[in-house]
Design goal:
alpha+beta, Trna Endonuclease, Chain: A, domain 1, Arc Repressor Mutant, subunit A, 3 domains, 15 strands, globular
Amino acid sequence: MAETSQLLSGAIALLRRAGIRLVSGSLDAWDLALPDGRELPTRVRVSRRPPTPTVLAQLLAEPDPVRRVLVVTARATAHLRTLATNGEIDVIAVDEELLVLAGVRYDVTDAASAAAAPIRAARGRKPWVRWALARALLLSDTAQSQHRLAELLGVSQQAVSLALKQLQAVRRTEHGWLAVSPEELLADYLAGYPGPGGAVTYWYGLDPVIAQATAAVDFCARQEVAVLVSGDAAADVYAPWRLPTRALLYTDRLVDLSAAGFGPATEAEYTLAVQVPADPTLWRTAEISEPALLADPLITAGDVLRTGGADAAEAADHVLATIRQKAAL
């Protein structure tokens, strides 16, 4: 069973292979440009299991005169295929490489660029607030009140209270909450945080990676798209160590970078990845760190590790060293 983030990224890869452009959108609404020039606004519903006939009927009953229902799932049932063939619903079944939009089945011709195989899904909701609290306490210079933490992360005090109870390496003082053992809190965070999730698009450019990141950030700014730089490009600012070969941007919605001079790429060959995160706290914890437009050092270090490479661990550790120095770990 595929992770939601992998289903979304796999679906985007299938669209590209079929010659369909994802012009703009969020995690739950995509504006598509079909090969014949038609535009197709959709509302996306991701389902790791194929939706039942009852759920599909409910989706179709939701009034929306503009956006068609697009179901993204791992595999399609016979009923879902029938609805898609009849043009009642749109479907992308990632594992089966099935793509049916507005009653038309599209050929996915480039088999060599298929998305990576699905991974086993983690059960239940991800504790984004708990992980964000760990980052906030590690990045803060002083103890923080529960009220201030809630304000910082844009969540309720009740959510903060519940999350603090789940963190083993923190305690409350007369001045507020702090990490009683920053090293333990850091180790627990690094071991548990799986990355921000969401949907990823991959791009290729010929300029040096830092120049690519700069150009993409400028393009997003002109489009009024919120953006954070992470991975090697951000690490090069926090603690330069290795030559960046790939850049990672987080944006608050999907963007088409072909207008900025980038070409679509696969996960194997990209130089720039753009990710709309499922984790809603990235911009909140980024505000704790300087300079602006960078993901916080903990997010950056994790992304450096996920980018990989022989010296990824050393590069990530140099970024984490900036946190250890601040917290006197």
